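Exercise 7 asks you to align residues with tokens for two separate proteins.
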Amino acid sequence: MLKIYPIAKLQTVSELLNSTRHQILLTGSWASPFPNTPGVYIFRRGESIIYVSETGSLPGRMKDIIDTRNHTLRRSVGTKLYSDRIDFTKSSSKQRFCDAIEKQLNQYIVSNLTLSFLPVSLGRKELEERLFSVHTPEYNSKGLRITI
């Protein structure tokens, strides 16, 4: 079914796509400068948008990227990159990867991914859905999306 997006939403999409790309540092304090607001965020690898999501707290969610148990993107990237290793064990919300994979995953994220975000109080789910439908990010779970 065709979704209709108001012009304001399309402008907001453009604002997010053109917003600052932040390098990911994966330190305990790296999320502190983010505004303590709800918002939509995207992870990129080069020019490709690989993950889109929304959150009620930007700094809280950015802290989550440090721990594999707390962020789907970390689990998905780690599985894709390292599942062929002999020391690979699938991670979950209760279990991290082994220390060697966690270390390599941290290095990969810091070296290859950037983050952009846009504070959005109202309509952040709609903005996330719009970005997902246009860009089809590699690491988003496609089965969770519902078209109305």
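Second protein for Exercise 7:
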Amino acid sequence: MHNPWSDIDVPRVPIPLLKAPSPENVKELFSYLDNHYPPELALRNKTIIAVFVESGLRLFELSAIKLEDINWTESTLRVWGKGWKEGKAPFGQTSEALSAIRKALERDPDNAFYRQAHDFLQGKMAR
């Protein structure tokens, strides 16, 4: 028996892409963070935002990054995307925050700063 509905094409509704924030939007957001958060939280938040804006990573990909996934020489992050496929994402082309986190990590042998940012992204600490 033939199903008459099988001959009808279902229209595909395009999914609109989010617009990337402008450099002015990012500067405004960074200024807000600097003025309304303690310096260590402002740095953490600016770093997270900078990586999102520069790399286009998903939250899951960003929250899974480990220190050994950061390649400072190539300015890339090793990421694990959908289906656990390994990839590389660029970072640091415009970010002041990422150079600051590098300095913070170099000064912090216990990597408390990194753990705090990682825990924040994993939802393990207050926002």
